[in-house]
Amino acid sequence: MVHRRMPRPSELAPLLRPAPLTLDRTAAKLARATSIGDLRLLARKRAPRAVFDYTDGAAEDEVSLRRAREVWASVEFSPTVLRDVSRVDTGREILGGPSALPFVLAPTGFTRMMHTEGERAVAAVAAQAGIPYTLSTMGSTTIEGVAEAGRGGRHWFQLYLWRDRSVARELVSRAAAAGYDTLLLTVDTPVGGNRRRDTRNGLSIPPSLSLRTFLDGARHPRWWFDLLTTEPLTFESLAAGGGTPFEVINRVFDPALTLDDVTWLRENWPGKLVIKGIQSVTDARRVVDAGADAVLLSNHGGRQLDRAPVPAELIEPVVQELGDDAEVLVDTGIMHGGDVVAAVALGARAALVGRAYLYGLMAGGQAGVQRAVEILRAEVERTMQLLGVTHIKDLRPEHIRLRSAIRAPAHPDGGRAAGAPGR
Ligand SMILES: Cc1cc2nc3c(=O)[nH]c(=O)nc-3n(C[C@H](O)[C@H](O)[C@H](O)COP(=O)(O)O)c2cc1C
């Protein structure tokens, strides 16, 4: 039997206390976002359809991206208990320099299209957070502009090599002069991937005003206002002309790249050299023998070859092959700090994240990128605490099992051949 009574006013007051009033609606929405998935939903509302799809989308049937995300999600953690985890150190050395977290912000082309604050905002957040940021060759901010916006931070530069080597030589020396310490050579783009959403949306770079985009503009007035009232949106490091992303890539990049180009770059770049887009044990070994300091296991966020190997599944065999000869980095499909922890436990030195921070950028400019990094940071820290691990170096393969959705015969190369997604 429950005895009821009237509540006293003094008991009601704390319950009725209103939430603090935030006049900035974007800030309030960002504060309410509790995951990268929440930021993605905000981004979808804020950015024009074609811009959101360019970021969110992948190639062909988008199987590469879906599988990569499924494998991260299928990770099973194995916690250890009764360890003092009141203090956790998430810092780690990556390619000879410090990083406050075991992840790096990946290069993404034309970042000012997602939000006018673009690469400068991302560089500023990375510097504040103490993690490296990688500027893309297809960036919409200059090499020097990013170094200035991210003063005090570590800058990495991503290079596409194309037919005219003098341009690459000039970019590389500008990056060295501006204090960039690491160069990523992307090798998974001999030709552009077929990104169907861009074709369907009629996306052109830079965005042009057609009847369709004009109508869409009515629903995203802020984005269009920003576009039309700020510095024109252009590629800052190359004269690529305009067109669809596919046309731009195919006009600029060199399908004839070989290992000799890695050797050439090694001779022309004084800092650390990472080869981005490695998808097999054999290729990892080849580029390291040619002078690379690290390989980045990546299928370009699923934007190039569809049904490609899942990068998470390549970590262990590649680490085993390379030993202490080179560092192993990984990206594609990372949406949670727990994915980063899993990557490190499997043997990666660090992970890179692309869309995760771009969703934040589209959702709210620099404040959105900051929210994305904060969400990932808190997830990394919490996952480590729940695993009973206080230092990144103590994360071990014993802490995780990859319960891959994809079960197929072992790949001859040591990775696992992709089969049908099971979730
Ligand atoms: C919108 C967008 C643009 C990208 N542009 C580049 C680029 O210019 N150069 C490059 O090497 N990789 C580029 N990437 C790939 C990323 O560097 C990274 O490999 C990928 O985003 C990782 O997957 P994730 O987005 O699931 O984290 C781009 C990715 C996205 C989403």
Description:
This protein has 17 helices and 12 strands. With 423 residues, the protein is an alpha/beta fold. It has a single domain, classed as Aldolase class I (TIM Barrel), CATH 3.20.20.70. The strands form 3 sheets. The chain has an 8-stranded parallel β-sheet. The chain has a two-stranded antiparallel ribbon with strand order 1-12. α7 links the parallel β5 and β6. The chain is globular. The termini are far apart. The C terminus is likely disordered. The site of flavin mononucleotide has 24 residues, from α4 and α17.
Q: Provide mean pLDDT, rounded.
A: 91
Strand elements, count: 12
Low-confidence stretches: 408-423
CATH superfamily: Aldolase class I
CATH-defined fold name: TIM Barrel
Count of folded domains: 1
Percentage of residues assigned to helices: 40-55%
- Measured between the Cα atoms of the first and last residue, the distance is 48 Å
| Shape verdict | globular
Lateral arrangement of strands in the main beta sheet = 4-11-10-9-8-7-6-5
Q: Bound small molecules, which ones?
A: flavin mononucleotide
The topology string of helices and strands comes to HHHHHEEEEHEHEHEHHHHHEHEHEHEHE
Question: How many helices in DSSP terms?
Answer: 17
What structural class should be given to the helix and strand makeup? Answer: alpha/beta
The CATH architecture classification is Alpha-Beta Barrel
Strand content: 5-15%
